[in-house]
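writing this on my phone so excuse typos. first protein, seq and then structure
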Amino acid sequence: MMTFQKFIEQIIDINEKEWNETDIEFKKVHYKKGDIINKEGEVFRNIYFINSGIVRSYFIDKEGRDFTWYIHYSSEQANMKNLFVVDYASFIRQEPSKLFFEVIEDTELFSIDFNSIQKLYNLSAKWQKLGRLMADEGYYNIHHRTFSLLTENAKTRYKRLLKENPYLLQIVPQYYIASYLGITPQSLSRIRKEYDK
């Protein structure tokens, strides 16, 4: 399991002296399966880095249907990772979020609040680089996801997930996977049967 410091050091070139000079506290927090980290209508006041576990972000439409927006996770077994848990639009504007964030397996996170991260950005260009890279990653993920939902059919989306990250298919309940792909569990079951032949 990677420490938060080691993770940050993979992104930006920061030495031990610079790290110790930050005097900013990255809090370690634990959530149990089923816990809600942030609700629709609440401002997202922290950015979380997942050290272990899985978090699902989702929204509920006017008919009460639940749609998975993103799956955030960290695992050495995964080809890809989505390590940051944040509604970036809510966080950077300090506006109410439109999403819920639910823990779907016991999860350990490191947390930094909005004011603390602003202080970090003022310390040096290295910390500003971290903020830019997080924003870049957030933009890429949203663009990739939106483009996929708008231009690809369900089979193509499933095939892409199977290729890019079969790990998720092993650990995340199928009704969440179906919701993430924008289809019903029944449709996912039919698609999987075709691929299992």
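second protein below, same order as before
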Amino acid sequence: MTGRNYDEVVVMVKSADLKCDASLHYNLYTNRPISYQPSDHVHDYYPSVILYGECLYSEKLSGHNFIAQIIGRELGVSNLTATLDDFHKRDEFGSRMYRKYKEDNVPILSPPPKGVGTYRKVRGKPAWEADLWMGKEFVRDIMAMMNIKEQLYIYMETYTENRIHWIRALTVTSKNPIGDLI
């Protein structure tokens, strides 16, 4: 995987905004449906959390402000319910494809999604913003964690490819992850 620059980011959460939205599906109000899925629900309910904090790690982001908007969606939207079998390549007849590795046949997998979200630099400021789409349950768990009155941290495994900063993994925790990194 050449051309990728991997990094880890730790953010100390200083404050948060919590929100729950309810609406009718946006495709009901347009003549040209967007991402139309017949199985989509007419009523749309989703929680979201905006976490505000300060980057503690990596060195290039240390001291910068960080805003992470985490929006909960129905599992089933995009790749949120995908299984490994969904990424198992198939031949023209629909049969699963395998390759030989030592004595075993191992599945040939399609490339995975780029990440669970992206983040970008705020122009002219020492600040970064992230957008992540997660399952509703994950977002509700973060909301519940806000009640424990402990310091929260965000840990992200990230990489940069073609000037896009991808978030490969996200953890929200009450334990400072820096001790595990150093």
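The chain has two helices and nine strands. thats all i got for now
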